[in-house]
Amino acid sequence: MRLPGSSSLFPLAVLAMLAAFTFWLERASRGEGGGPNPNLRHDPDYQVEGLALRRFNLDGSTQYTLEATRMDHFPDDDTTEIREPHVVYFRGGQTTTMTASLGILDKTGDHVRLKSEVRIVRSEPDGNSVVMETDVLDVNPDAELASTNTPVTLTQGRSEIHGAGGLKMDNKARTLVLNGPVSGTIYREQAK
């Protein structure tokens, strides 16, 4: 038994399904659908060898320099990888130097993640340097803020402190907070 008008609905249903499939296929080919887009692999679209960059303060003095052996930009996620970054901040005759094996810059440029063999050396007015070492460091370059949740080792002279919960550093305010638990050995300097 046939329902009245069912023979005229079948071609419309087939056309609707074909239109929906065509729409899905077009979106999937552009990478807007649920599947991966093979055209956007994680391959660099440009590379820079021997990078050297300077950022200036409003008064014309150098805020920081960045040098790296290589920089690669990836269009799929709009990130930039920096190989062997070497950053030096200049503030009131003192410097803070940050080095790592790798730096990953986000698409806005407001956040850099330093990874592997991260080392921070901060000069002090008395000539002693504070050295901090960790595995990962998140840096806001323009605000001169840095933080990590990974363990940190801080050394100054023979003194050594370990912050198991990471650190927060404000280079402009010259403050450093180690997150606990914190342990270490602090030696007094001998009077000369």
Protein architecture, described:
It is a single chain. By secondary structure, this protein is mainly β. It folds into 2 domains: 1-39, no CATH class; 46-185, lipopolysaccharide transport protein A fold (Sandwich), CATH 2.60.450.10. The protein is built from 1 helix and 14 strands, in the order αββββββββββββββ. The chain has one helix at residues 6-30, and strands at residues 46-56, 62-74, 79-83, 86-91, 94-99, 102-105, 112-123, 129-140, 145-148, 152-156, 159-163, 167-170, 175-178, 182-185. A 6-stranded antiparallel barrel has the order 2-3-6-7-5-4. A hairpin with a 6-residue loop joins β6 (102-105) and β7. The mean pLDDT is 85.
What is the alpha-carbon Rg in Å?
27 Å
How far apart the termini lie comes to: 110 Å
Number of domains: 2
Multimerization state: single chain
Shape category: elongated
**What integer is the average pLDDT?**
85
The tally of strands reads: 14
How much of the sequence lies in strands comes to over 45%
Q: How do you describe this structure in short?
A:
The protein has 192 residues and is mainly beta. It has one helix and 14 strands.
